[in-house]
Design brief:
Length: 217
């Protein structure tokens, strides 16, 4: 074998090795079914901060960064806005929205929140929607329902109509909470929502701004 042949062979090996070991840009993980907590709030006593991330339960119980994660409300997950003044801040009666529901449905996102790792001395947790973007004219709302007939309690709402916007969770989220709600998006498309969690007692621990990505439709 000539020196030239050996060098060409070595070049080929190095090229293949570079191809194998060069890292590709990470693809965003998309979650569209199953139980997760969108707001997983934990307290770090060592540096007096809150962490705000995602918590998954299926298939693993694990924390997950919102960065690089897309939460999808599938096209079939739609609901019609009821009539009545209690619902007017959700949008015009009779129109439909994409909704990840408060109750478990097998082929839907079952999204909630938890503050189970926040000590009572630090709570409740102030949860703020500090910024958002979505398709032109779109709206986002997070609400719970109770009673019969069901009535909504809005926790967050971007509807600009008079009396409708809610950017700070009313009363905060009590320590030790694990609950679920309805995550509603008026229009198909991508939404980016930025939140901040702050402990209302103690030394005012905060998470800083954390951005989530939702895909409706």
């Amino acid at each position: 074998m000539t020196l030239k042949t050996r060098l060409l062979g070595l070049t080929s090996v190095l090229t293949v090795a570079a191809t194998i070991f060069t890292a590709s840009p990470a693809m965003a993980a998309t979650i569209e079914t199953g139980h997760l907590d969108v707001f997983d709030v934990d307290y770090n006593a060592a540096n007096n901060t809150l962490t705000l991330d995602l918590r998954t339960y299926e298939p693993d119980n694990d924390d997950l960064s919102p960065a690089g994660t897309v939460l999808r409300v599938v096209p079939a997950a739609t609901a019609t806005i009821p009539s009545g003044t209690a619902w007017q801040c959700l949008g015009p009666a009779g129109t439909s929205m994409y909704v990840a529901p408060q109750t478990l449905v097998s082929d839907r996102l079952y999204a909630g929140w938890n503050t189970t790792d926040v000590p009572a001395a630090q709570g409740p947790v102030k949860l703020e929607l500090t910024g958002w973007s979505g398709p032109p004219g779109s709206r986002f709302a997070l609400y719970t329902t109770a009673g019969f007939p069901a009535t909504p309690s809005f926790k967050l709402n971007t509807n600009p109509a008079t009396g409708c916007p809610v950017s700070v969770w009313p009363g905060g989220i009590a320590s030790g909470t694990h609950a679920h709600g309805n995550w509603a998006f008026s229009t198909a498309g991508t939404y980016t929502l930025t939140f901040r969690a702050t402990a209302l007692n103690g030394a005012g621990a905060t998470s800083g701004a954390v951005t989530y990505t939702f895909q409706a439709g």
